[in-house]
Design brief:
heterodimer; A: eight-stranded mixed sheet; 9 helices; globular; B: mainly alpha
Chain lengths: 274, 85
């Protein structure tokens, strides 16, 4: 059983809530992991998986830190006041905090979904030793459009018809309006930050070891465009593997997915080689 | 086998292969997929991706309504209409 500690720490001008595993009992302290969550509903649905991964890493001797980024969960701030660059900065603060608390020399940034974009963008600032990107989202504009599409689909299920379009929602953002998506006030600033963040460029520039985990329902599923983009950005420098899981890790599903054994196996195996 | 029946079979195959369905006997061609809890909003996104990639049919935002996607039969009819142009 790994040790667990939670509390707030200063991340620049605000305080973040973080949970650390393995800081007290780890047998190997040279490499820690900062886990970067996805956003909106995905953050909540991914919580059990990220927690179980933190514990598994700590049990292998890798101290880990999971923080709620600014405006998320228990951390300071309102969601609608958060912006992308601030979140990238938060990730760098998380890496510094893990080094300080766990005494690790090196830190890997692990990002799930849009957390992968933030991890890649923060890699230089955080002086990361490696990157682990799980079911990554690395193309900001496409992600924004996907989130809007998901919202429209949810409206369809609730109200029999969507009644809105992505074009209409983008126009409202262009006009400076906030758009409420799944209960989150998505702001023009957040949209613009996502669109302009060059996560693929950051990934291409990162020189450390990188793991990309393509999470699929079947071995034969088509490779997502995001994974193909990551593969192209990495060239021959990274490792891209497929992990077959019964459902996505970041969505509410019929199965309460906690462990995600295939993903865990790939990640721990890659970490062992570091 | 008619083209329409073939499309319906493909829709059925996709639905049963993609979404966990405890009792296939109640998920008939005319059963409401959202009402039975077979497909939720994220499930619909997978359906739309499949329609585009495997069936060559793009779903426009304004076409996202249950008239088009409530049942497997309606999905098959939507595909036929789109293909007919």
């Amino acid at each position: 059983m790994s040790s667990e500690a939670h509390g707030f720490f200063d991340a620049g001008a605000h305080r973040l809530f973080a949970v650390m595993h393995g800081v007290e009992s780890s047998v190997r302290r040279d490499l820690g992991v900062v886990l970067v969550h996805p956003f909106m509903e995905e953050r909540q649905d991914a919580y059990p998986f990220l927690r179980s991964l933190s514990v598994a890493l700590a049990e292998r001797g890798h101290p880990s830190l999971r923080a709620d980024l600014y405006g998320c969960g228990d951390s300071a701030g309102e969601w609608s006041d958060a912006d992308i660059d601030g979140w990238v900065d938060d990730v760098a603060h998380c890496a510094a905090r893990l080094r300080e608390q766990a005494g690790v020399r090196d830190v890997v940034l692990l990002g799930l979904r849009y957390g992968a974009s933030l991890a890649a963008a923060a890699a230089a600032r955080a002086e990361a030793k490696g990157l682990a990107l799980i079911a990554p989202v690395l193309r900001g504009r496409e992600y924004v459009m996907d989130v809007l599409r998901a919202y429209i689909a949810s409206e369809m299920v609730l109200n029999k018809k969507a009644g809105v379009s992505r074009e209409g929602l983008m126009s409202r953002l262009d006009a400076g309006e906030r758009v409420n998506l799944f209960g989150y006030d998505f702001t023009p600033r957040q949209r613009d930050g996502m669109v302009s963040l060059d996560a693929l460029g950051a990934l291409a520039a990162f020189e450390g070891p990188t793991l990309v985990v393509d999470v699929a329902r079947t071995e034969t599923a088509r490779e997502p465009a995001e994974v193909a983009a990551a593969r192209a950005a990495l060239g021959d420098r990274g490792v891209v593997v497929r992990a077959v899981e019964p459902q996505p890790l970041h969505l509410e599903g019929k199965v309460h997915l906690v462990r995600a054994d295939a993903v865990r196996k790939e990640l721990l195996s890659w970490m062992e080689a570091r | 086998m008619s083209d329409q029946q073939e499309v319906l079979d493909k829709v059925r195959e996709f639905v049963f292969a993609t979404y966990p369905v405890a009792d296939r006997s109640i998920v008939t061609e005319d059963a409401s997929l959202p009402d039975l809890g077979v497909i939720d909003s994220t499930g619909y996104l997978e359906l739309f991706d499949w329609l585009q990639a495997d069936m060559g049919v793009e779903v426009l935002d304004e076409e996202m309504n249950t008239e088009n996607f409530e049942t497997m039969r309606r999905i098959a009819e939507f595909i036929a209409r789109k293909r007919a142009g």
